[in-house]
Amino acid sequence: MKIYVPGDSAAISVGADEVACEIARLVPSAHIVRNGSRGALWLETLVEVDTPTGRIAYGPVTPEDVASLVETDFLNGGAHPLSLGKTDQIEWLASQDRVTFARVGVIDPISLDDYRAHGGLVGLTKALELSSDELIAEVTESGLRGRGGAGFPAGIKWRTVAQTPSAEKYICCNADEGDSGTFADRMLIEGDPFTLIEGMTIAGIAVGATKGIVYLRSEYPYAIATLQKAIDEARANNWLGTSILGSAHAFDIQIRVGAGSYVCGEETAMLESIEGKRGVVRAKPPLPAIEGLFGQPTVINNVLTLSTVPMILAQGAAAYKARGVGRSLGTQVFQLAGNIARGGIVETAFGIPLKELVNTYGGGTLTKRPLRAVQIGGPLGAYFSTEQFETSMDYESLIAAGGMLGHGGIVVFDDTVDLAVQAKFAMEFCGIESCGKCTPCRIGSTRGAETIDLIIQGVRVDENKRLLLDLCEVMTDGSLCAMGGLTPLPVKSAMINFPSDFNGERK
Known about the structure:
This protein is α/β, with parallel strands linked by helices. The protein folds into four domains: 2-94, 3-Layer(aba) Sandwich (Glutaredoxin), CATH 3.40.30.10; 112-321, NADH-ubiquinone oxidoreductase 51kDa subunit (Rossmann fold, 3-Layer(aba) Sandwich), CATH 3.40.50.11540; 324-414, Roll (Ubiquitin-like (UB roll)); 419-502, de novo design (two linked rop proteins). 40% of the residues lie in helices and 16% in strands. Strand 14 (371-376) and strand 15 (382-385) form a beta hairpin. It is globular. The mean pLDDT is 95.
């Protein structure tokens, strides 16, 4: 009898460990699998039971609920007020198109047998049969773009590294997920770490790299532990090491833990940190694809990008590119957070309207107050008003609407939010997290926060708004990286879309 109780940090934070212990106490014969969260965070702790008719879900379960579940024979799918029916028929999950997250919540995260039973290693096996050119062509043809925020075509980056001669090359996975309202990288690593390992291995084969590094934030202790167990398991089964699955290819992975610097999510600052230096941004060129880690050609992709590669290889580029719109092909893992009734992971094809994500999947605000603003793309993303809710969620449409997709985070605010205060926070955040290397970012953010504070206080409002816009232009054009270059985006979008908050009159 298998009972699934999520063991990822989201579920643990609301009592999943205690639920698992109580089930083990009352049902000692049960085999409890600590799977990843399905991503329906408002239903955690979500308990699932294997029955002859499929997996039956119950949630949200607390330790106090376990006794009544046992009494109503939940082991055989018995009726209970917390019963949600068959897991794969829950509308919120069934209506999604899960590709990258296909196995998350379904499998035991550190069971290689379970991974294989659900389609794992099919992509890697196919990759071993292809030449470097054929493999890179498949990824390029799929239209896969970097899911870390830049949206750069993965295949082009891989081809650059493959064509750059060097005795040593690296695959670096940027798992320093620092954007507010984002958690997909963590949930995937905690729920299906072998997918990331497989994607990195395929990338290594494609470009001729033998070493992979996952730069993982220290704030994710469960992800670190889960990924390390999976790496050890892969090595023990000759998947990683000197002969990948018995082939002539060698590849291995190690974890490097970051120290909590937001700017180390920028690719060159990350490289500096991995090399043991202070995490500051490098000037470009040269590009990391040509001179990256320790001066060698380096593929830098984020968790979602690399974790999508195995499914592309397994199902074919055509199947992946059939999803999406325009140049935004495939699926995007959206993360719903903030003041939202149903927060969590929604994976669907590019092109879904913003209103469908927030209202249909998200269920509106948690407070039940009117929704006023949504920030898309992390703390450096733009603020959208409800008048912009028809916007298509894809790279090009969001740019045309004055925003950006970023890592796919969506943070919701009700009508009590003050966008001038939020704009000030953006500047303050930049000032705190700046690496300090360039003046527009280091000094501009401080002056920006001071200027917005004057506007809030009603001091020379029109003059200071003009000054603020001038400052934003300097930061955008003069900063070395996106830290300073994108900080003006939330500020200017707040000023444009919510002008009444910048008239110097407090509510």
